[in-house]
Amino acid sequence: MPSNSNDPPPTLSSSALDDHSTPDPATDSRYTSPCQFCLIAAAHPPPSSPHPDASWISSAPLPSTTSTSTTPSSSSSSSQLPFQNHTLLSTPHLLAFLDTFRMAPGHLLLIPRSHHATLADVPPGTAAQLGRWLPVLSRVVCGATGAHDWNVLGNNGVAAGQTVGHAHVHLVPRGDVGEKDQEGKRRWRWRPREEFDEEEGEEMVQEMRRVLRVEIERMGRERL
């Protein structure tokens, strides 16, 4: 992993990113199939540019109104996702999108594009990419929401609360965008999907894309 933001990113080959055998999402008995995160990855093909640029800032597919297919394929289009999805970032190796069951506006998920059940299964090359993007997306979450504090969380395994069998990291903005009890203390609560308006989610991710664009432009200048 780079030692500071001025170091060049590691050069990653496909073999380095896939150097561990991982469970097949269709046969991993610990979780239901198909893997929802694999569906999202299939709906957002990798960008053609190997370096961060505007093509890595993703648009958000809308839920399908004509198809109920849940089989991922390389030709999947945005209209084939059977659920709403607000995607922010799509790199050759990772994706980031708003959590459907988000704890606060701007609650983001960062996932590897390839299927790995838990963080313990993620190969070193992909882990390096996760580490590279966590600080960037932390700035994006805080910049878009106005939060000064945030959580970085990971649930690994059913007993730890993992409900999707695909490794992922939560970035949750805190502060005024969170919730307090009567004593003024923060409480952890997964809010039901219906409490959030989809238009509100799209407005949030549009603001996050604006902040991300500034970050990616900075990354491009540092590469020169």
Task: Please provide a written account of the structure.
With 224 residues, the chain is α+β, with helices and mostly antiparallel strands. The chain is 27% helix and 11% strand. The protein is built from four helices and five strands; from the N terminus they run ααβββαββα. It has helices at residues 14-17, 36-43, 124-145, 198-223, and strands spanning 87-90, 94-98, 108-112, 149-153, 169-174. A five-stranded antiparallel β-sheet has the order 1-2-3-5-4. Helix 3 packs across helix 4. The longest helix is centred in the C-terminal third of the chain and has 26 residues, at 198-223. Residues 1-26 and 64-79 have low confidence and may be disordered.
SSE diagram, text form:
Layout: H1 14-17, H2 36-43, E1 87-90, E2 94-98, E3 108-112, H3 124-145, E4 149-153, E5 169-174, H4 198-223
Antiparallel strand pairs: 1-2, 2-3, 3-5, 4-5
Helix pairs in contact: 3-4
